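Supplementary Methods S3. Input chains for the assembly prediction are listed below.
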Amino acid sequence: MQFKIVLTLFITLSFFTVHNAQENNHAEDSVMLRKIYSEALENGHAYEDLRSLCKDIGARLSGSVSAEMAVQWGYHRLKKYDFDTVYFQEVMVPHWERGTKENGYYQSKDGKITKVNILALGGSVPTNGIMEGEIVMFKNRDALLKANKKDVEGKIVFISQPMDQKMITTFSAYGACYPIRGLGAIDAAKLGAKAVIIRSLSLSEHDHPHTGTMQYEEGLKKIPAAALSTNDATALENLLNESKGKLTFYFEMDCKVLPDKKSHNVIAELKGSENPNNIITIGGHLDSWDIGEGAHDDGAGIVHSMEALRILKELNYKPKNTLRVVFFMNEENGNMGGKTYAKKVKASGEHHILAIESDRGGFSPRGFSVDGKQKHLDLIRSFEKLFKPYLIHHFEFGYGGVDIGPLKNEFEGIGLIGFVPDSQRYFDFHHNANDVFENVNKRELELGAGSLSGLLWLLDRYY
Amino acid sequence: MQFKIVLTLFITLSFFTVHNAQENNHAEDSVMLRKIYSEALENGHAYEDLRSLCKDIGARLSGSVSAEMAVQWGYHRLKKYDFDTVYFQEVMVPHWERGTKENGYYQSKDGKITKVNILALGGSVPTNGIMEGEIVMFKNRDALLKANKKDVEGKIVFISQPMDQKMITTFSAYGACYPIRGLGAIDAAKLGAKAVIIRSLSLSEHDHPHTGTMQYEEGLKKIPAAALSTNDATALENLLNESKGKLTFYFEMDCKVLPDKKSHNVIAELKGSENPNNIITIGGHLDSWDIGEGAHDDGAGIVHSMEALRILKELNYKPKNTLRVVFFMNEENGNMGGKTYAKKVKASGEHHILAIESDRGGFSPRGFSVDGKQKHLDLIRSFEKLFKPYLIHHFEFGYGGVDIGPLKNEFEGIGLIGFVPDSQRYFDFHHNANDVFENVNKRELELGAGSLSGLLWLLDRYY
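Predicted structure tokens for the full assembly:
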């Protein structure tokens, strides 16, 4: 008992000592944080930068001429902001093209036809002319995995699995539903299907199908894979449930896989004044799907990262460590930018201590998720009080990001931090035609930039 | 020292006892809260109810036929949900009509004319034909208050004051800028101006002017008052700054004030099983401005409140206290619904213990603000852990709401609670043509309904 009393007192006293020291820094830090947010909101460049990326370039899938335009755009924007160094880093990227034909419809026994909004999944093989087949529907992936080959062979598999509306964080609902897109063509090919079509991964009902990566398995037949809009998928599901009759599906896609192509990550930095060899990166991905304008995914992350560094430079901050912005190429279909970056910086001996990624859209900021050690989370949580006036409240272990992920294998003890904005609207826009500049709110985007700039500054100061 | 040790131990032990008791309830409560949110997200009625209010009726300014349609709509929706009691409460409301003419332009010395997007402020007198006058611009209200009569007399005052972008909570920026609309006609009339036009209160640049209440002062000349869209205001300000020349403004408005009219609040309740005479109300306002569809303001609050009660009924919850939904009439230009309600329930001896209001839009929920005693805040904060999985983090003293405000004068010790959603997009839509159903996100709206239903349930259980 005595020991416990002493311990309790010790903890109590220690608490007050630490508390007071923090209070002093807190006052000073909160003044700087206010300046950072004010710069983001009053003189921000994020919104105009995003407008330019979305409207002057637009969609920018790896291997396309638009992606190369985006590389040049990124280099010259970073140059314009006059950072210490701006350079390219070569990356070999996959090259898949959608082609010009993407049409589909289904026909019931009485002859009635219904046109659908359909999109090839990224990486799909073409249909080579019009493909037709009887539709066999599965409520979800589990049902497909349990199916008999005789019920599927020679047919077109339709997986109608919706994202789970009751999950609060939409990325959890996406993660749970992702295998129907990523693995649907493998699952269906194993049962002898001739093609697979899925309900788009979206939480809202509309006419714009989504796209995204899918995989094939070595040794299995590569079958065409496509997504229907949520509206079309619901209508088709209802018809199949009502009629119990056979429906024939017809579709045509002339997408193709081409040889890998040379592209680039684009990098800029502010050199560290005390520890220039310790690098903190912040980044997003420059490529996007070929539909919409890649505004939230991940134009927002690109302008967030650039703006985070611009603000610190504008406020004449001299970093202790080297702060580096990285525009990664090819997150969407291969992550070759992230993988190449990690290998090259490891090989050249550039020591990475922390990495931040923004790839969850330009929505109202809620916080940060930490993929690292307890010390990383503790550090981020020590900023909680500072961030409270900016309505930032989420400081938890969680995912860092796809682009920065490979750094974990190369740098023991690195902390990866993912920016966490509000996720509710993300899957209205994700990988579909709605992901355009007009669907990004200026203030929400700017608050994200302010939050990331503030975090970058605090990490440089206290890590 | 000994005393402190004992005290520390006592607090420590007490903490663990309370903690354990709360843990047990916490487990049970979290199951119910999960059911409430799942009902809101999987079987929710809020979105379809809002669609109906916005599209089957639309804008519904007090005194208009649309407002009367909304009263009937509210009554029959509440009846449909089969609550214990549904009834009307008579309210006399002001009646102002916009009329059919609302046009304006300005002309520079070289003859060039520029048409503007202009809206009469609610309650403004008409221009009685085309009014013309030289424009005199003021950067903000303070500048106008300091002006000399000779510089203003006979002219049209233009107040170009923008909302402050650097404020994090947009309602604070609105509050700071509100006097240019509410008091601009008084300030300008005191200096002999013939009319006042203001920059719309909005945080984004677009072509849709906003409207809203304004005041006149007894004994002062009532001058026409209108708002220009933010785009038009910026263009006009730039032109005045550049040219320093004189600009003549021409505009016409045939709005009019008519005699007060009879209307109604609409009320429904679930009777309390233990304390039926203790009433907890939840509400929003049924009227809206006559522009747009009143989707966020305050269609969202109407369907939030109705849905909060519907969910509890659907889950077979038998409340201890009487839970009452109130659709208030005439929040926008008079608050006669709120004032009348408070007086009538006081007179009839209906004891109100708590009141909740949703009137800040249908955006992603962030928390609750409490206008009451410390005990009210402490109670709400005791729910913090329960609400954390739903990303609710704001539990602070703050504003309750306009409609429930008058209850404070009638019931000593009542706690008023305002629902606090994310505020960043609110002033893109507020009182302008963009406040339509399409600008409300289904999940964000439903999460708001779930949060309010959960709060209502917890308050009934623990107050």
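Chain B is about 40% helix and 25% strand. Residues 1-21 of chain B have pLDDT under 50 and may be disordered.
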